[in-house]
Design brief:
With about 160 residues, this protein is an alpha+beta fold. The chain is about 20% helix and about 35% strand. It has one domain: Alpha-Beta Barrel (Multidrug-efflux Transporter 1 Regulator Bmrr, Chain A). This is Bacterial transcription activator, effector binding domain.
Length: about 160
């Protein structure tokens, strides 16, 4: 699948998360477990305005925050803490397909940045669309939006390379 990478200005998004450390092969287990834990707290605390699941990759060492989007800051409860995605310039693409192929979207963004002279700032995140039953039969339709924060000095969109599908 080709990935249409583009630059956007994203607002800060409030999150409720748990912090984990996981190697790439563990993510398919760690992320769903963490999302379940966070949703349990969100429900038990009657937190309004919860949205989609999110995984924020803090560094290249396996530190990750996993949780859910919120409309307002979360004070925390147990190991579930408030966090946020940063506001700023991002390189982003939408991945349609199984989670096991998300690495393709990440590779497309990194290549696009390298080709266009953009510098990732070290923070990346995935926002998982709400699960739909039909995805059980057709995982090619699963939607995940992938974001890479860019250094503020990155080139403006007009100077970004066009990327064929």
């Amino acid at each position: 699948m080709g990935h249409d990478v583009r630059i956007e200005h994203r607002p800060r998004r409030e999150l409720a998360v748990v912090r984990r450390r996981a190697a790439p092969p563990e993510l398919s287990r760690v992320i769903p477990e963490a999302c379940g834990l966070v949703w349990g707290v969100i429900r038990s605390q009657n937190v309004a305005g919860a949205g989609r699941h999110v995984a924020v990759y803090l560094d290249g060492e396996g530190d990750v925050e996993v949780g859910v989007e919120l409309e307002s800051p979360f004070a925390g409860h147990g190991e579930v803490v408030g966090s946020s995605t940063p506001a700023g310039l991002v390189a982003t693409t939408t991945h349609l397909g199984p989670y096991g192929r998300l690495h393709e979207a990440h590779a497309a963004i990194r290549e696009w940045c390298r080709d266009g002279g953009h510098t990732p700032a070290g923070l990346a995140w995935e926002v998982y669309d709400h699960w739909r039953d039909e995805w059980n039969a057709d995982p090619s339709a699963i939607r995940t939006d992938v974001f890479y924060l860019l250094d503020p000095g990155s080139k403006p969109e007009a100077e970004s390379p066009a990327r064929p599908e």
